[in-house]
Amino acid sequence: MPIFNSGFFWFVEGILCCIVVLGIRAWALDRAIAMPWWKWLAVGMWALFTGFTIAFVGTSLGEGEPTAAVQGGIMFGIVAVLSGVGVWRLWLIGAGPREKQAES
Amino acid sequence: MPAHVRNRRSPKIRLAVYLAVLVALALALRYGRTRAAPDLTVSIRDIFPRADSIIRDRGVFRVYADSGLLIGWAGSGQASGYGGPMLLVTGIDTLGQIVGARVVEQRETPIFWRMARPNDLLASLSGKEFDQIDFDRGRVDGITGATLSSEAIFASVRAGVVDVAAGAFDTELPAQERPFEFGLLEIAVLILFVVGIAAQKARGTSRQRIRWATQIAGLLILGFWKDSPITLAKLVAMLSGFFPPVKTSLAMYLLIAGFLITSFFWGRNIYCLYACPFGAAQRLVGLIGGKSIKLPQWSVRLMEGLRNLIVFAAIFMAFLTLQPALASYEPFAALFSLNGTTLQWILLFVVLVASLLIRTPWCDFFCPMRTFEVAVQDLKVATRKPQQRSSDG
Amino acid sequence: MARYTKWLRNLAVLLFVLLVNAMIVAALVQGFRGE
């Protein structure tokens, strides 16, 4: 538990976030998908929401509330999964013709 | 597979299966209905611990202590809950005060019954004079989400109190004014059906647009606002002989009637296609998911068969135990009222995620209403067979 | 390769439906067992 309070943890966390963002940018470049600001926003918000969902489940379990964990987890989980697929399809908008063929 | 094609394949076997199913269900219902009636004296003794002898005198029970002293009366009352009638017995002492009330039998969905907190509700009545109780408080104080159950509890107690008041205290309590509920929900249901039927005249794309419009309206009104889609419990309750008063359940009657009538006379189930909120939810999720998987016929038929089997088992058990509410395995309440068992929540999650890849998975492979719709369509085809054959020849 | 994918996919759907049906049966049994 105390590890999450330490500065070192957040330092590593920050590095991981940067790597993920650079990774997304590289992946988009590889697949010739344009990345305007709104796509970044969508992905970012989805990541925050999913993180919140996981945090909710973890916190509820930690507080000894398994029912809340299940109900809230599924509720937010549904939104996370559905919006995830939505964001994925959003992300593919503007993909090069080769990508569209591979998709179908 | 369209009904007329489906029915041409081995019609004799289909008929045999339908007959077997009907006979099995009829037997189960008969068994359920003829089970021994509950013994009210057990509950009465629970209310009056000093009770020695209990004598039934016309509508009420006279309770005597072992000294021979009359310590009170008890009256039983019945009221319609969600899954059928519930029976409560209420005890009143010689001063006209309510000693207590006990639930003899109820058929509510377990989660909602717990939510209604029957023990708390009944405890709140103790000590009050029978003519001083405001039973309409049940409608206000009733726990939201379990409104139907808590209202039924109060109505049931009231019925018992009315009997005792008349039989023991020679007082006639005023009749309970149940207003005829005809509000936005009932109007919405009517509009959805009318528009759906009218849409059959429209051309392809306009019909699709109308369908989206009604489905979204259904999702918002029948789903999130009122949480009153057709459920297996409601249908089975009626088949069991439990008909809730039209005054309070008009919307339900309209939906079920519309479901059956449009399936039979128009061949298209307007409820499923245009009104059902869960169907709408699946279609919307399907939009997010994009193209859906096309499944082979043999697989679809197998999965439909499984669905029918489960629906049959659920109805059979509900008839056997005379507990219609237990047959409802739908996860609708979890989505629309955030109320459900853990299993129903998981079911909801799984079905909605599956809707991304499979077209309306619940409707096609799990919904009991689809089984009924198919049966109604088969009935329609069967009753028109002579015409069919001549038009083929 | 494409033929196998389709077959696997259909099998997956079938298994999924079986799994969900099992969940439903479990729910029904759980409910009626209380009776």
General description of the model:
The complex is a heterotrimer of chains A (about 100), B (about 400) and C (about 35). By secondary structure, chain A is mostly helical. Chain A has helices at about 5-30, 35-60, 65-90, 95-104. The termini of chain A are far apart. Mean pLDDT of chain A is about 85; it is low at about 100-104. Chain B folds into two domains: about 5-30 and about 180-390, no CATH class; about 40-165, Sufe protein. Chain: A. Chain B has 19 helices and five strands. A five-stranded antiparallel sheet of chain B has the order 1-2-3-4-5. In chain B, helix 11 packs across helix 18 (about 370-385). Residues about 390-393 of chain B have low confidence and may be disordered. In chain C, about 90% of the residues lie in helices and about 0% in strands. The model of chain C has no long low-confidence stretch (mean pLDDT about 90). Chains in contact: A-B, B-C. The interface of B and C includes residues 326, 327 and 329 of B.
Class based on secondary structure composition and strand pairing of chain C? mainly alpha
> Largest contact between protein chains?
B-C, 30 and 20 residues
Shape summary of chain C: rod-shaped
Query: What percentage of residues of chain C falls in helices of 4 or more residues?
Result: over 70%
Order of helices and strands of chain A: HHHH
Report, as a whole number of angstroms, the end-to-end distance of chain A.
46 Å
Q: Tell me what portion of residues of chain C adopts beta-strand conformation.
A: under 5%
Helix content of chain A: over 70%
**What is the rounded Rg of chain A?**
17 Å
